[in-house]
Amino acid sequence: MTDEQLLRYSRHILLDEIGIEGQQRIAQAHAVVVGAGGLGCPVALFLASAGVGKITVVDHDSVDLTNLQRQIAHTTARIGQPKVASVQQAMGALNPEVRVVAEQRRADAAWLDATLPGASVVIDCSDNFATRHLVNAASVRHRVPLVWGAAIRFDAQASVHDPRQADAPCYACLFPPSSATPDAQCATMGVFAPLVGVVGSIQAAEALKLIAGTGQPLTGQLLMLDGRSMVFAEMRFGKDPACPVCSAKTV
Question: pTM of the prediction?
């Protein structure tokens, strides 16, 4: 590491759980961020500030005035720009060392299959069940750890799924693809602005822990936050032997 890098990342290097070796793993990692909205903005900024070597950000949407209440990487001046271009600009201003790949498109199965092989972690910051299930299935296929989060109104959730562990459950073990749960849209339901920052920060922390190989990830745990009372709750769940995505019969 250069003297400038030692200074930039000194507060990580000072941590016994990370140190120089952990920071080097971060520098060599490739993180894939699905979504550049409320959750994706803090995730992308924290991964860039931490020095993740390559960060791929995918989102099909453009910056809108209604986004600015909570999507902190975007600015009024960048309204109308692709969200991935806006967040790429913010990340580059924060840390020009990282390589940011901006993909303005939907993260469909074909794109995920082309992008995830060799990735260190995928962070799902999308806002709909269909995309979450696509990302989860690709995570299982390519054995790439998945960190996901969700926030609506004053309620939020986050968890980690690690297909490298044979007994680890996946997203579909918790929320089966056949379930008819309707998507809750913040355009009609609303969302408390700081809540996406809290959840995005948790996702970034879990991704960096996986990359650096430190701490205990939220594998097999659903972390839930009630933003009204700021109370966290945790639910543990196991692998579903009949899961259509990760069971031994389907993998």
Answer: 0.95
